[in-house]
Amino acid sequence: MWWTYFDVVARVSEHRLTQATGTERTKLATDSYTFLHLPLIAGIVLVALGLKKAFLYIADTEHHTPGEALHGIPIWTLTGGLALYLIAQSALRKRNLGSWNVQRLVLGVLPVAATPALEHVPAAALLLVVAALVVGLITFERLRFTEWRWKVHAQHP
């Protein structure tokens, strides 16, 4: 999740803010660093709670069996938190660049839609699924947007 924010999103947002002036700068700062960062942070907190519960299920063999699946609030915090985080990042892009990040919107919806099915997957496997989704997103974006990423990194070291 760190990579999805700091590789490009943070750089572009910061650059856009430094270019803006006057009232537009104030509105951009308020939108980007207050209204849109609140769901980003909430998403991180929810994912952290889901991860904590998943690791508890895996490590606490006295109270949980090795193949036990997350269910209820813990799984929804993990999948919903990831969705909230990715959708907020896409909204941040919309605010700063004028276009949505479609792959992050899709990836935000997928785990939430799959949550009822994922409630039957062992907690350890669920962690692998969630990690694979995020690593897959990063890999896709690195390959698909290589040239654009280089430009962003060159402009905003």
List keywords for this structure.
mainly alpha
Measured by DSSP, the beta-strand proportion falls in under 5%
What's the average pLDDT?
95
Main beta sheet? none
Say how many strands there are.
0
Q: How many helix segments?
A: 7
Taken in chain order, the helices and strands follow as HHHHHHH
Described by its quaternary structure, the protein is single chain
> What coarse outline follows from CA principal-axis ratios?
elongated
Structural commentary:
The chain has about 160 residues and is mostly helical. It has one domain. The chain is built from 7 helices and no strands. Helix 4 packs antiparallel against helix 5. The longest helix has 25 residues. The chain is elongated, with a radius of gyration of 18 Å. The two termini are about 20 Å apart.
In brief, what are we looking at here?
This protein is mainly alpha-helical and 157 residues long. The chain has helices spanning 2-19, 22-35, 37-59, 73-97, 102-118, 123-144, 146-155. The radius of gyration is 18 Å and the shape is elongated.
Q: Helix and strand layout, with pairings?
A:
Blueprint: H1 2-19, H2 22-35, H3 37-59, H4 73-97, H5 102-118, H6 123-144, H7 146-155
